[in-house]
Each structure stands twice: as structure tokens, then as C-alpha cells.
Specification:
- This protein has three domains: 11-240 and 355-410, FAD/NAD(P)-binding domain, CATH 3.50.50.60; 246-349, Flavocytochrome C3, Chain A, domain 1 (Alpha-Beta Complex), CATH 3.90.700.10; 429-516, Fumarate reductase/succinate dehydrogenase flavoprotein-like, C-terminal domain (Methane Monooxygenase Hydroxylase, Chain G, domain 1).
- The chain has helices at residues 23-34, 69-79, 86-105, 139-152, 223-230, 263-267, 293-307, 322-325, 327-335, 392-410, 432-442, 449-462, 472-493, and strands spanning 11-13, 16-19, 39-42, 59-60, 120-121, 131-132, 157-160, 163-170, 176-183, 191-196, 199-202, 213-214, 235-236, 241-248, 256-257, 271-273, 312-315, 345-354, 357-359, 371-373, 378-379, 515-521, 527-533.
- Helices cover 31% and strands 19% of the residues.
- It has 13 helices and 23 strands.
- The longest helix is centred in the C-terminal third of the chain and has 22 residues, at 472-493.
- The strands form six sheets. The protein has a five-stranded parallel sheet, sandwiched between helices.
């Protein structure tokens, strides 16, 4: 199964194609280059417009006094609610500190205390202060800046901006040997083309735009995960969509990217209140307002549903120098008519992060030869059922380096693609809004058999609205449709509540479900689902 697109009008080659310019893609590209291989870096928008630059809180790493990888591991496993792959977590927390040091060596500048030490804060689920931050609440922007400076200084990395990766190119044995691209607007090549390579790395970030309310930028339509699915790769645990509990609520019908109120605000002392002025998290978890994200998001949603209110409140008025510590958040609040130093901030959950994704091994390999996946697009098993705060940037740094090492050691010979004789599939872009609203309503923070079946029925109807006009909006809508199907089918299969998957008809966590839900999509558009054991 492939997307309907025109025949490639141009061809380019590199040893490795990396799709995505966030922390995962940039780290992989730089490490591949360090091994002496050529890289084509493809990004959907401009180089600095991915999700990484929106990361406010920071990077988690055991660098502080009294902290250790073992303690970081423990917090990660608790947040992951029984579904973490222990080997993946150990790699993340033990290789993490050195990965951060390398990032600093590449020029990333993190905030420091008056004594000159790197300043560390705490976020939900962490029992230690281990979150590095930059510019107060602009960590992602600084990480992105440092990596991009390194990329721009390397003439062995060719960059194509404003290019959507459409589908993988494969040889007669199914080995991935490149991708088809559509270059938008002022990109360096016009229209549809093909990039041949010995290995392809998908690092396209999240799929937040499958929901009507999300912290993800507009480019986060899950293109890389959909590409991998159509190539025959397996996906796992895609039902675990993390909803960030504190997103600035706005009394409008506008969708798209919503302003995030970082967990670090609660780490600095802010707390949640319901409409009665009660601190409702205090009795719900030992960490109260700093409980893991899924717990906080569920409790906020419960408060909203119980009392029929559109949001709860975040009280940050006790934080000294809020504007200096959180300049980005302060500006977002002020732009929406709120002074967080004097007023309560209205907040509600919104789609934030996909803990599942394309199933990969500890070196980022998928089930398809030649195809690697890194970052939010991947399911390494490190996050389990619920990613621990600020482990995402760390994952990109750690596994991006591992993928590069594996490619350098095992790079195959270039093979040539065979032409896919299928006509191609494409949906009408007009389905996008209905799809997003349907997913938020039936497959959001709270799910049930009834809501998920209703969502699947609507998706089936939307799947009949075809288009014969290949363009960006249609490709994105088709990708979102494929991912929505995977999420709903995974959520239906998992008849329990765990991590960021909460079934109101199965409210308890079932030990029998300490398994991964693995899905595959075949060339005829049929889904298959299997269960696999979690490696502990």
C-alpha cells in the first residue's frame, strides 16, 4: 500500500537519508557523518520548526549530587507502569549523562546556578532534581540551536527543507533503499523526487495532530510512522498517547498547537486547584501535583467531567521571578490576557506525546531491513505505558547515537528499488477536522468499548472519501487516518487501564496485560494484531 503521488522527476543519492530535524534526526545525522558517511537530511518545514524547539522543561539525566542512573531508572520504570523494556531503560539512563556532556561539548548552553554549577530542577514522576534547562523554559530551542550549528558547519550533510517524505522505496526483497519526497515551495528541488540510500532513518517526531487539541506543531502529522507502516514495519503500543495535563485553556474553538505550561512550573512550586479552590492532587498521589503525567491528566479530566467545568486552575503566583524563570510561558499567558504572577492560569489536558511507535530494537532497527526509527516515532520500550517527563530529548540523543553506530558497522550495499505497481491510496483532506474531533471525543484521555467502536465507525466512513489530487494536505490527512486507525485498534485490544491508556469500562490494571500490542498493516490495507512479552 502506498500513497497516490506523481512519478519522481528527479533523483539524488546519499549513504544515509535522515528524515526529521529534531533532536533525534540531528543527533543521528551528526553521528553518521562522524563515521565518514554522507547524509541527506530531509525536513518537512524549515530546519528549526520541529517539535524539539517547543520542549520547555528540559533534559533528564542523572548529573546532580546524590543522583544516579539507578534512581533515574527506578523513576522511569514506575512511570512506565510495567511496560518498560528494562534493557532500553538501562541504556537510556546510563548512556544519558555522557550524551548530555557531548551535547554541551557541541555548544549547548544550559542554565547555571550562582555557583556556576548546571542548574537542575524537578518534574512530575522524578524523585530527584535532574532536569537540565536552558533559557528558563526554552531548552528545546537551545538544543536545536546547538545541533543545527553543527549541521550547518558540515558540508557532508545535504539538507532539503520543506520536503514531505511520502513513501519508502524498497527492492524486490523488501529492503528499504530510499524514499520518495515532495518538495514544497522554495525547497531545493521541485515536486516529487526520489532519494536513494543504503539506510533510511525516520525521525519525524510525533502525531499530535491526530487530535483536535495538541501541544504539537502543525507539522506533527505522524508522516514517518505512517511511511513505516506502509513499508510493512510493525508498530507497538500506539494506544499510549500521553496527554500533557497542563495546557493553557482558551475559550475558543480554535484547534492546532496549544500553549504548553511546562511541568517545571509545578516543579518550582505551582499547584493545581479545582473550581472550589481545592488542591485535588494532594490526596491522589504521594507526589501530589508532581505525580506522573497520566495520573495528573486523568484527575484533571475527572474534575472537569464531575463538575462539568472546561478546565481547572494552576496557581503559580508564589513563584519568585516567574517571568525570568519561565519567559516563554509568561509571554504565552500574557498574550492570552493572563498575568501568571497575579492570576490563576486555566489549564486542561491536550495530546502531547506518543509513547509507542514503530517497533525497534536497541539499535533502532525496525522489522524491515534498511529502515531505522528514532525519537518519538519509535517504540524502543524505554517509555512503557507513559513517558517520564523530560526523557524524550534524552532518548533522541542516546538512541540517535546508537543508530549511527549500528549503521556505520553494518551499512549494506546500495540496492535499487522496484516500482510499486499499486495505484496508490489518497483521502480527501476535508476529512481532517472531523477525524481530529472524533479522536478527541472517543479515543482521548478516557476511552471505552462504546466510544472506541463509535470512533472506528466514523473512521470507516471517512476512509471512503477518496481523492485523486496528490498534494500535501491529502497526504497528511491520509497519514493521520492510518495512525488514528492504529491508535483505536490498539486501544480496543487493550482491555485494561494502564499508564496513559484509561478505559472507563476496564478501570483496573491487569497484570495479564503486561504485554505489547503489536500491529502490522499489509499491502492490501488489512490490519493484524499480536501480543509480545515485555523484556524485563
Amino acid at each position: 500500500m502506498k500513497l497516490l503521488a506523481g512519478k519522481p522527476g528527479w533523483t539524488t543519492k546519499a549513504d544515509v537519508v535522515v528524515i526529521g530535524s529534531g533532536v533525534a534526526g540531528l543527533t543521528t545525522a551528526l553521528n553518521v557523518r562522524a563515521a565518514g558517511l554522507s547524509v541527506l537530511l530531509v525536513t518537512k518545514a524549515l530546519l528549526d520548526e520541529g517539535s524539539t524547539k517547543w520542549a520547555q522543561g528540559g533534559i533528564a539525566a542523572a548529573l546532580g549530587p546524590g543522583d544516579s542512573p539507578d534512581q533515574h531508572e527506578s523513576d522511569t520504570l514506575i512511570a512506565g507502569a510495567g511496560l518498560c523494556d528494562l534493557a532500553a531503560v538501562k541504556i537510556l539512563v546510563t548512556e544519558g549523562p555522557e550524551a548530555v556532556r557531548k551535547l554541551i561539548a557541541r555548544g549547548a548552553v544550559f542554565d547555571r546556578s550562582d555557583s556556576g554549577e548546571i542548574s537542575l530542577t524537578r518534574e512530575g514522576g522524578h524523585h530527584r532534581n535532574r532536569i537540565l534547562h536552558a533559557g528558563g523554559d526554552a531548552t528545546g530551542a537551545e538544543v536545536s540551536r546547538a545541533l543545527l550549528e553543527a549541521i550547518k558547519g558540515d558540508d557532508g550533510i545535504e539538507v532539503i527543507e520543506q520536503a514531505l517524505a511520502i513513501d519508502a522505496l524498497q527492492d524486490a526483497n523488501g529492503q528499504v533503499c530510499g524514499v520518495t519526497l515532495h518538495v514544497i515551495g522554495q525547497g531545493s528541488r521541485d515536486g516529487v523526487g526520489q532519494a536513494l540510500a543504503k539506510a533510511v532513518v525516520v525521525a519525524t517526531g510525533g502525531l499530535g495532530q491526530v487530535y483536535s487539541q495538541t501541544t504539537n506543531p502543525s507539522v506533527s502529522t505522524g508522516d514517518g510512522v505512517a511511511l513505516a507502516l506502509r513499508a510493512g514495519a510493525q508498530v507497538a503500543d500506539v494506544e499510549f498517547i500521553q496527554f500533557h495535563p497542563t495546557v493553557l485553556w482558551r475559550d475558543t474553538a480554535e484547534g492546532g498547537q496549544q500553549p504548553l505550561i511546562s511541568e517545571a512550573v509545578r516543579g518550582e512550586g505551582a499547584f493545581l486547584l479545582n473550581h472550589k479552590g481545592e488542591r485535588f492532587m494532594v490526596k491522589k498521589h504521594e507526589l501530589a501535583d508532581l505525580a506522573p503525567r497520566d495520573i495528573v491528566a486523568k484527575e484533571i479530566f475527572t474534575q472537569m467531567r464531575t463538575w462539568n467545568i472546561p478546565h481547572v486552575w494552576l496557581d503559580a503566583t508564589g513563584i519568585a521571578d516567574f517571568e525570568g524563570r519561565f519567559p516563554t510561558i509568561y509571554a504565552s499567558c500574557k498574550a492570552n490576557g493572563i498575568d501568571p504572577t497575579k492570576q490563576l492560569i486555566p489549564v486542561a489536558p491536550a495530546s502531547h506525546y506518543a509513547s509507542g511507535g514503530v517497533l525497534v530494537d536497541l539499535n533502532g532497527r525496525t522489522s524491515i531491513k534498511g529502515l531505522y526509527v528514532c525519537g518519538e516515532s519509535a517504540c524502543t520500550g524505554a517509555h512503557g505505558a507513559n513517558r517520564l517527563a523530560s526523557n524524550s530529548l534524552l532518548e533522541g540523543l542516546v538512541f540517535g547515537a546508537r543508530i549511527a553506530s549500528d549503521i556505520a558497522a553494518n551499512l549494506p550495499e546500495q540496492v535499487l528499488p522496484v516500482e510499486d505497481q499499486n495505484e496508490g491510496f489518497l483521502l480527501n483532506p476535508a476529512i481532517k477536522l472531523t477525524l481530529q474531533l472524533t479522536m478527541s471525543e472517543g479515543a482521548g484521555v478516557m476511552r471505552s468499548e462504546e466510544s472506541l467502536q463509535a470512533t472506528l465507525t466514523t473512521l470507516d466512513q471517512l476512509g471512503t472519501q477518496l481523492s485523486s489530487e496528490p498534494r500535501i494536505e491529502a497526504w497528511e490527512a491520509s497519514n493521520l487516518y492510518l495512525l488514528a486507525e492504529a491508535i483505536v485498534r490498539g486501544a480496543l485490544a487493550r482491555t485494561e487501564s494502564r499508564g496513559s491508556h484509561w478505559r472507563t469500562d476496564f478501570p483496573l490494571t491487569d497484570p495479564a496485560w503486561e504485554k505489547r500490542v503489536v500491529q502490522k498493516y499489509d499491502q492490501k490495507g488489512r490490519w493484524s494484531t499480536t501480543l509480545s512479552e515485555v523484556k524485563k
